[in-house]
Specification:
There is one protein chain. The protein is built from 18 helices and two strands. The chain has one domain: Farnesyl Diphosphate Synthase (Orthogonal Bundle). It has a two-stranded antiparallel sheet with strand order 1-2. The chain is globular and about 60 Å long. By secondary structure, it is mainly alpha-helical. A hairpin with a 2-residue loop joins strand 1 and strand 2. It catalyses: 5 isopentenyl diphosphate + (2E,6E)-farnesyl diphosphate = all-trans-octaprenyl diphosphate + 5 diphosphate.
């Protein structure tokens, strides 16, 4: 276990009992009269991962002193929405490996993955009704809509080597960071936080989610495939111009820029080793890590507005340790 994963474990230990309650809700609400629905859902949910989005909701609730059982239901809702996006993402990206094992679409086929993703979305909206608060419905409906827009935006940007950093960040803030933002905001809304504090929680979630994805894009060129549970260079094979490539094209020679442009346009990974070398040699990884550090600091600044207690200190620790992430 790395120092970073050990630190994450210590933060998540604060909410270990809460997460067991969330797991019980998930197991109960995955029940369906159609066996394949539960089978596919359980397959992807049981794949592991840190479950940062529901954890974020629970940590914010803890930081603000809320102990209402509704937090378990909404944490499960957030995990269902996230799982639905993963099912759909892997179909769109034609992915075959996630967290070290075959993706659901690889194991069950594309139609089952898409349709079970739809089931999880609709089940999440059924569960939202249990909270009985229009504000919660508004936050989650807005989040799912923005995430869908981000997915389409990313699709439009595929194989486009002219993508700049601003457009890259726009996709991340829509596609990945929005659910982090919604999770943190929901915790504040459940706790009845005043508007300024609610916004601080939302800002924390957005910044944390952005930093998380930027570091994920670094690891696609500088990670350990065994630890990550996916193949290095997957983004390039999918024709995604992520920040490491954008920075490398900006800092490399004309020949190097052309090589990367051609690879993004064709989704070709035959020159992956050389491109990884260019990314590292031009300092593109340092540029990308600096962008992640800026977002992590934004998260820290937002979290400092919460009451000082073990949960808010856990939120600070999550932001600080992102930069040491290796998987």
């Amino acid at each position: 276990m790395t120092a970073s994963s050990s630190s994450t474990a210590s933060v998540l230990a604060l909410i270990a009992d809460d997460m067991r309650e969330v797991d019980a809700v998930i197991a109960r609400r995955l029940d369906s009269a159609v066996p394949l629905v539960g089978e596919v859902s359980r397959y992807i949910i049981s794949a592991g991962g840190k479950r940062l989005r529901p954890a974020l909701l629970l940590l914010v609730c803890g930081a603000l002193g809320l102990h209402d059982a509704q937090r378990f239901n909404l944490a499960a809702v957030v995990e269902f929405i996230h799982t639905a996006t993963l099912l759909h993402d892997d179909v769109v990206d034609e992915s075959t490996l996630r967290r070290g094992r075959a993706t659901a679409n690889e194991s069950f086929g594309n139609p089952a993955s898409v349709l079970v993703g739809d089931f999880l979305y609709s089940r999440a909206f059924q569960m939202m009704l249990d909270a009985g608060r229009m504000r919660i419905m508004e936050i989650l409906a807005d989040a799912t809509n923005v995430i869908a827009e981000g997915e389409v935006l990313q699709l439009m940007n595929m194989h486009d080597p002219s993508l700049d950093e601003e457009a890259y960040l726009r996709v991340i803030r829509s596609k990945t960071a929005k659910l982090f933002e919604a999770s943190a905001r929901l915790g504040a809304v459940l706790a009845g936080a005043p508007p300024a504090l609610e916004q601080a929680c939302a800002d924390y979630g957005q910044a944390l989610g952005t930093a998380f994805q930027v570091i994920d894009d670094v690891l696609d060129y500088d990670g350990d495939a065994g630890e990550m549970g996916k193949n290095l260079g997957d983004d390039l094979r999918e024709g995604k111009a992520t920040l490491p490539l954008i920075a490398a094209m900006r800092r490399g020679s004309e020949e190097e820029r052309q090589l990367i442009r051609d690879a993004v346009q064709t989704g070709g990974a035959e020159h992956l080793e050389r491109i990884i070398d260019i990314v590292k040699r031009t300092g593109a990884l340092e540029v990308t890590r600096a962008a992640a550090a800026s977002e992590a600091q934004r998260a820290v600044d937002a979290a400092k507005q919460l009451p000082d207690n073990p949960y808010s200190r856990g939120l600070l620790e999550l932001a600080a340790q992102l930069l040491d992430r290796r998987s």
